[in-house]
């Protein structure tokens, strides 16, 4: 039977001391009584329709986790049920961590957002363009994304260096003049990871471990690698193009700072609360992260620094999704509701954003007491 945590399980206090589970009476003030039943039905529907293999879902109001639970299978071959403890690759949610790492270096006075990339990577050929760190963070650099190249998937298993990855795109013509358009670009975040390493004199992995994971007590978050033993690591699956199969191998040096992390639903709630409560960044840095960027003509884009800023269910949201071989993820925060929803999945056909949207819509419709903050 799948292990689960809910509002009734106070032993969660022993596992994550900086968050706490509400008692049943308290929980009625922050979540409807039928929340778990509703989430169960949404998750199982996705599994029964073969859109999902395993799911872990976490929901928090403020600092209180009101639901953390697993569904389906974390490993079909070993018959391991998914629980709230499973570690999933989170793909592009990694970009939030990369953006925060850059902002930590900004706070230390070591870099500025409008510094040119060539200040840190002087040999990078910008082809007479001025590319700033802000352009890279906001996907407005115009640099070609290496994950959009025709041979990208054929190269995923290769053990690569930074120079190998850069060679794939650095000489390609820019898509547009930096700052004039928004176009999602994994190359930009790969380059930001290199900047972090050059400035901090630490590997990207070491920087996150010492400056982010440890301070926030994120004990089940990793730079995902094949060789280390990671407890509760879920297996990834694919349904695209035919019957269900194990997802193909990807060397995690390839996504790097654009998508190489793995985590759990509870750790990602810790992450979001750490940002919101300014436990990691100064308030002005978090404000920069969560404010829409603007193009050179003044037009706003729906992206800050490592965050999408959109309206969902008629409410403002801040978050990011992720997709990588065998896994899909979604982390969303509703500021007015002080509501965080995390959905992690180990199948590349799953749509976590849809599941998250359904859960939020249910909470909004339920008119939970004091749901919306003034």
UniProtKB/TrEMBL annotation:
Annotated transmembrane regions: none
InterPro entries: AmpC-like (IPR050491), Beta-lactam-related (IPR001466), Beta-lactam/transpept-like (IPR012338)
Keyword Signal: yes
Alphabetical list of Pfam families matching this protein: Beta-lactamase
Keywords, in A-Z order: Signal
Signal peptide: 1-27
Domain (Beta-lactamase-related): residue spans on this chain: 46-361
Protein name, entry field: Penicillin-binding protein 4
């Amino acid at each position: 039977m799948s292990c689960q945590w809910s509002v009734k399980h106070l032993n969660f206090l022993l596992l994550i001391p900086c968050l706490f589970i509400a008692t049943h009476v308290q929980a009625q003030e922050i979540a409807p009584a039928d929340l778990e039943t509703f989430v169960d039905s949404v998750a199982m529907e996705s599994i029964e329709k073969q859109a999902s293999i395993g799911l872990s879902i976490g929901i928090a109001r403020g600092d209180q986790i009101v639901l953390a639970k697993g569904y389906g299978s974390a490993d079909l071959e070993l018959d391991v049920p998914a629980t709230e403890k499973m570690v999933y690759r989170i793909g592009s949610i990694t970009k939030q961590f990369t953006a925060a790492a850059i902002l930590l270096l900004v706070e230390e006075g070591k870099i500025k957002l409008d510094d040119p990339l060539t200040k840190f990577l002087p040999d990078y050929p910008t082809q007479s363009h001025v590319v700033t760190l802000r352009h890279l963070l906001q996907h407005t650099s115009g640099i070609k994304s290496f994950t959009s190249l025709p041979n990208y998937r054929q190269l995923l298993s290769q053990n690569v260096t930074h120079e190998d990855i850069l060679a794939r795109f650095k000489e390609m013509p820019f898509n547009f003049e930096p700052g004039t358009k928004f176009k999602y670009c994994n190359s930009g975040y790969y380059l930001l990871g290199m900047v972090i390493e050059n400035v901090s004199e630490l590997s990207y992995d070491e920087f996150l471990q010492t400056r982010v994971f440890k301070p926030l007590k994120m004990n089940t978050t990793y730079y995902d690698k094949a060789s280390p033993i990671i407890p509760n690591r879920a297996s990834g699956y694919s349904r695209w193009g035919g019957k269900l199969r194990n997802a193909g191998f990807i060397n995690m040096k390839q996504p790097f700072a654009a998508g190489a992390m793995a985590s759990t639903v509870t750790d990602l709630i810790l992450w979001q609360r750490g940002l919101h409560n300014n436990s990691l960044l100064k308030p002005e840095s978090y404000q920069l992260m969560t404010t829409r960027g603007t193009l050179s003509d003044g037009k706003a884009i729906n992206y800050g620094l490592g965050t999408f800023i959109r309206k969902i269910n008629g409410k403002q949201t801040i978050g990011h999704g992720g997709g990588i071989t065998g896994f899909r993820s979604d982390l969303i925060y509703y500021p007015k509701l002080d509501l965080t929803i995390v959905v992690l999945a180990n199948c590349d056909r799953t749509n976590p954003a849809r599941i998250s949207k359904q859960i939020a819509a249910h909470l909004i419709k339920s008119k939970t007491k004091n749901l919306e903050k003034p």
